[in-house]
Amino acid sequence: MWRPLRASLVAAFFVLSAVFSFCRLPYDDEWFSFAAASSPDTARVLSTLAGDLHPPWIVFFDRALWHLFHDQRALCLSRLIASTAAITLLSSVAERRLRVPWAALAALQPIVFFYSACARWYPFLLLAQAFRAYALWSPGRRPRAWVMFVLGGIIGPMIGYVDGLFLSIDSAWWLARERAHGRLRSASATLFVLIAMDAAIFVLSPLFHEHYRLLGGLATGGARWMPGLAGWFVTGILGQSFLPGGGMLLALVAVPGLGVAVHTMATEPRMRSMVPWLIAVTLGWVGLTARMALEPRYALMLWFLVAAGMVASLRRRGGKRIASGLAVGYLAFAWLLMVTQRFSLKGDLNRLPVGDCVSVLGRTPVDLVVAPYPGTASNIRTACAPSVSVVTASWGAHYGFEAGDELAPIVRQLSTACSVLLVTVPVRDSSLAETNDAAERLMAASHCARESTTHAVRDPHAALKMRLDPEVSPWRVRSELWTCPGSPLP
């Protein structure tokens, strides 16, 4: 019974995630992936990646997919296939260890679901870690376990340098397991070959020298503190979806259920041996988050297993079942918030309600709308459908705005417009801020004059974000009206 139920739940996850991914607007990082995949200038792509601490192999993979299909959905579908395979493996482990047939429901944990088909590298990291988790904790035959561990050990560091830490943790448990079975020598030899392969892949990277220096700076850099760590842990467990203001306290109903889930995982006989490994993995993420300010989406495997513990606790009795039901109910509520893109810390950034169009575009007629960020431009076109052109930058410069022809589409349209509305996202400490500055410099260089500035679409989570960063803007959109010397569009 368990395998058919798992297959049904995983299939439902695949369909729901595909529909959600293909229907939603891409979020900020995905625009960079699409631009890097579709850019005809490989040298420019590599120069941009040189300053980004991620291996370049996933971008090469995306460029190959784009060459074959010329469709953003191909990139998303490749991630969804990887996530589905990972969830199938992790569900198998969780079912056996927690003794529940519905562990695959944990795939609907909001963070796991939202990022399962995103055009970034997190789903492939999830797959690599799922390969190794299956090899460590599944009773599968030895050759299959070895193949999966090696695959996970190769894919993980190729996708993200952060996986080097978790490969080290997994390798320690792998050696301990093989030693218990009298296979320490062969396991050590396998790990030696695996490390040599990972080192060779790193050295063969066209960005080896640049990333070697970046990694060295990271190793000697100062640690970041508690706000990022608290945000990673709390929003990770609860799915990054909260009602605004005092409604956020509703999330407290999930806290007792989390405690029951931890108790279930620690006391279940088959799960008990897995708990020290989970603690080590969690501490690894905690250490990285304190230093690098990683977001919850980097730890999809961890949130899946925590959610599986919550789901497994539903078979407890009395108050523990009630607490577990409230926790699972809250995650279901957070999932609904996320798929409707309301009050989700990431999802609501992808949504522009039609009622906000007047506050964004204003009532003054203009000849052109300039939105340097592609997400903002897509939102305006979809929700507001203005009668004038909406133009954006041609290069999604998420990791640093570089000199080039990114503003060429704006320049062409600007030369024929007298009244221009510049719509930007008010951000700091981001390359998007540099893009906004470049667009403003272009306006000034074109002899345009700023007439007025307004802010629109208040962030529903502004209070929370301003507690973590008092200087963050409470607004999602800034609209500036400019007058230019061009002739109006016919």
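That was protein one. Protein two is written in the same sequence-then-structure order:
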Amino acid sequence: MAGDYVTFLLDLSGSGDNRAIQETVAYRRSSRQPETAFVWKVTCDVRGKVIIAGLADEELCVIATARWHGKIAEHKQVDPAVPTTFQWELVETALRTELERRELVLDRSREAAVSNAELIEDDVLDARTARAPVRKAEVSTVPIAMAIVAVGTTGELIKRMTARFCGAVTGKSGSQVAMVGMFDLPENRSPVVEQ
């Protein structure tokens, strides 16, 4: 079930406090695998069971397990030298950060969805715009996975291109936060009747 897990790849050779690779963070089981020995897969379930896996002879193997009680506890290691104290700290910092993000996403996704009719009544959305063509996109390069519904045009945007998006969170779409809005493009700034 979505939200029962926090899974991510941890870049041991990265920099910064939180070395979780953001585009790999998922709040469900994930089949993502590390591609190098310097990246570990970290999974924490709803009961606080933590599993750390890494590559050994190009096979994914469990390196260590632990319990999460607001911090790493009761850890067991296959090799007493791995993870080191520093590596446990990296896991703990990343796990704390991603668990906090998960709680924010779950709290936000429990809010009631706002309908187009309510947005039109509140003068947030123009009735003509509400009937404009709708484009859907999945964003996975942000810390929180979102399902975006873009009203209007997406212009010449392509995957991984940077663009400004103005919208409002409207609820939840599957396991993702849903957002409705519009890309900040010249063709979306003119009224629909002129297009």
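Residues 167 and 181 are 4 Å apart (CA to CA). Keep this in mind for the problem set.
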